[in-house]
Design goal:
The protein is mostly helical and 281 residues long. It is built from ten helices and no strands. Helices cover 67% and strands 0% of the residues. The longest helix has 31 residues. The protein starts with 5 loop residues before the first helix and ends in a 12-residue tail after the last helix. The protein binds fe (ii) ion (2 copies). One fe (ii) ion (FE2) binds next to helix 3 and helix 4.
């Protein structure tokens, strides 16, 4: 299979469609929680932001799908839009089920250039999902909440893995189709896309912006666990290949953040389990 070919497009679109999981959030078996578990869940500060981020993603991706002319790609992007909306519904169901303290969702305003916004969103998802995979494992291993809750949320992580694999393949396919398929040029465009998302990530860490990319990383210690940077990075690096193992080997996968974190791991290990720890938010 050649990148940028019709068979490449068919593979990344069909594998996206065929791995769709059918479920309705309100029908899922949310477990009863004891008072300590309820207090923990209510103390986690990110439910409102998570729901609002997913709502905006759903609207953005669904609106972008309507602008696409290739019916195969349009159907896949439309499916992603429905999945993002379902993520928002799942979080809202959790909020309602456990009476979590949140504000009503805000109105959503999308910028006019949906193509550019979808690309920015896609690179942001590549960064954020990598951290989300690790954070999810750390929270699960902490055993502070029932496994039934993690079972409910686990498919969201697999769906985000599907989204980012779809995105990097679509982005490469689009570059090649537009005659910008030379490898240095694609690297340049990919580097530019990541750099913009990294700026969002840095803004999120410094508190200048708390939405989109960086959302997961900046909330890494929301479960009030003592997580050293080394353990966080190690867990992300272990979780990523597990999430990625579901995809055909011919498909591209996001590699920048895993490679950067792999590089960062050795210097981090020289910094024994002393501070700095990730700060609670
Ligand atoms: Fe999502
Ligand atoms: Fe997504």
């Amino acid at each position: 299979m050649q990148l940028g070919s019709a068979s490449h497009r068919d593979l990344f679109c069909q594998s996206f469609q065929s791995s769709y999981l059918d479920y309705e959030p309100t029908q899922l078996p949310f477990p009863d929680l004891n008072p300590a578990q309820l207090a923990l869940l209510r103390g986690i500060p990110f439910w409102e932001k998570a729901r609002d981020t997913e709502r905006r993603a759903g609207q953005l991706v669904s609106s972008f799908a309507e602008t696409l002319t290739d019916p195969v790609i349009r159907e896949a992007v439309a499916l992603q839009g429905r999945e993002e909306m379902r993520h928002a519904r799942l979080i809202q169901t959790l909020i309602d089920r456990y009476d979590l303290p949140v504000n009503p969702p805000p109105d959503i305003a999308l910028p006019p250039d949906l193509d550019a916004e979808f690309i920015l969103f896609g690179f942001g998802e590549c960064l954020d999902s990598f951290f989300a995979f690790g954070l999810f494992e750390i929270a699960r291993q902490a055993d502070l909440l029932p496994e039934a809750l993690f079972t409910i949320f686990d498919p969201i992580l697999d769906e985000e893995a599907r989204h980012i694999v779809f995105f990097v393949n679509w982005f490469t396919y689009k570059q090649i189709q537009q005659g910008q398929g030379l490898l240095p040029l694609r690297w340049l465009k990919t580097g530019w896309g990541y750099s913009r998302s990294l700026q969002n990530l840095i803004s999120a860490f410094t508190g200048a912006k708390r939405n989109g990319a960086g959302f997961t990383a900046t909330n890494a210690n929301a479960f009030a666990l003592e997580i050293t940077p080394t353990r966080f990075v190690e867990t992300c690096l272990q979780a990523n290949p597990q999430r990625m193992s579901q995809f055909a080997p011919e498909l591209l996968q996001p590699v920048l953040l895993p490679q950067l974190c792999q590089l960062a791991l050795q210097p981090l290990k020289l910094w024994p389990d002393s501070p700095p720890k990730l700060k609670p938010v």
